[in-house]
């Protein structure tokens, strides 16, 4: 029997955007009239340009998407996801310090999706092996 992948989870820092939210940028963030997103110092923030299309395609293909991140600045991460316009793609947002195994346990409990039906993308290789 073949198992179909149901849920795809992503880390945030250096996976969906090219910086560390806890150390490289300063919240709060704002979207300017020209569409640029800046932090409180006026530094322009960019995401990896492929990410919006990938998220849209996965969403349209029926995958459940999740965020799994150990970012300490939880409120800032959620604000940035909303300003960028990605918030609606993610059914689960486990954003807080701690072991990612706990993040995934909560997603598993809430979604009723088994681990073998999940895929995880993270820039830290050791964290992708749970």
TrEMBL record:
It comes from the Eukaryota. GO terms for molecular function: acid phosphatase activity. It holds the Pfam family Acid_PPase. NCBIfam families: HAD-SF-IIIC, MDP-1. This is Magnesium-dependent phosphatase 1. It comes from Acanthoscelides obtectus.
